[in-house]
Input
Amino acid sequence: MKHLLNERICGLFRSNWQHTLTYWSVFFSFGLCVAFLGPTILDLRCQTHSTLQEITLKLLVLALAMAVSGLAMGIIDTISNLQLVKIYQKDSTVFLQALHFFVGLGALVSPLIAEPFLSETSCVIGNSSVNTSVLWDLRNKLAGRHVHNISNVPLHTQGQVVTNVSYAFWIMALINLPVPIAILILIYRERLFPCRSDPSRRLLDRETSTMKTWGSTGLSDENSQQTEYRSGYSDLLSCCLHSNNQSFPPSFFWIHILGGLVLFFSDGIVGSFTGFVYSYAVEDPLNLLHKTAGYLSCVFWAAITIGRLSAIPLSYRFKPLRLLIISQVGVVLTILLLLVFSSSSVFLFLGTCCLGLFISSIFPCMLALTEDILDYRGCATTVLVSCAGMGEMLLQVVVGSVMHSQGSFSFLLCGLIFGCLGFVFFVLHYFVQVNYRSYTEALPGNCPVEQHEENGIKTCSGVVLDSRDASEHKTSMIP
Output
């Protein structure tokens, strides 16, 4: 059975490899860009002859560039997740784990590209120099987006610029160059250029019409084995209507809301931990050296990357719900232990690693689970991605404000509160989705009374209810 599962997933990948590799490469580029600005911002200040306050509040041109970049990243995040869910449906967990692995890989590689070109001392030569340890402290604060209490650092704006940071930006541009080329090739292959005779044709239409299912006899058209793909993607209002034009129950909307809240807090923990773990480590009671504390963010992102890589084979064996339970419990317990052993610098590194491992797969598993519950209508992906982005943005502001007023110890306390709230909303999400499944089974055509199991396969009037079980069942019936 496991061999058949792997064979089917490999078959699905072979039939959609160009789309999948393109989305993965886009997310790798996404990760590179997300983590690149922080370490280079001091040298970028020298290039623009700006004060530290001006560069952290963003110059007009830089602010416009960052706004365009943020808009593009939001579109990339939403579309890539949405398209992989539509292509692979019940098998999307594996490919979503790989997709988010490439984000972590890009974020991990990005500082390594910039490191050789960063100035060890002040990159503008003036009448006095800035201590190297002060610059290291500033780089780590800015890399974590912690920009409080930096006005007292004397950095020159006029003088000879001695930075080579422009080389790092050129290298980054060259690494990212194949990504838009791959996208253009995909657009050309799908005949999506507006100058063609059929400009209304969309990539989604192409993907849904050519989706393949891997069964016992190999690849075959989905139209011959499954019902026609739902038309719920045609417009926004159709997301709120069932196939027989009946409105969904309140549980349908609560699944979106609760799923979004789970990711709001999980991605909020990722953003706030990355942004403020350095500031927490260099203050009482740990008082770590600036250089030592700077490794915490690297350890955290490395753990997230390893966690997402290890979750790819785990997704073959376990359903998203089981992985989510382990991840949610692990996040809460890890932050709780960090609070208990708050005076131990060794456990801070160990806890940072464990937190990254547990929290790494929450987003892709929650996305796959929610879309599976809602029968892959595609609407949940946009809601979940938006909520995750808002959590990463807003909870950093909350943590920064609380730490500024209450002290560094409140950093872990905020993390524990966020983790507990995320777990509570996850439990509520589970009970709501049980209620929603009961509703959908009671709809006309789903015949819950006639539903029974035959050789371990759930059927309803002879129709197999699970496409994954269907392929395995068909194989088992071959003599």
Remarks:
- The domain at 245-443 is CATH 1.20.1250.20 (Growth Hormone; Chain: A;).
- Confidence is low (pLDDT under 50) at residues 146-151, 204-234, 447-459, 461-479.
- The CA atoms of residues 140 and 294 lie 6 Å apart.
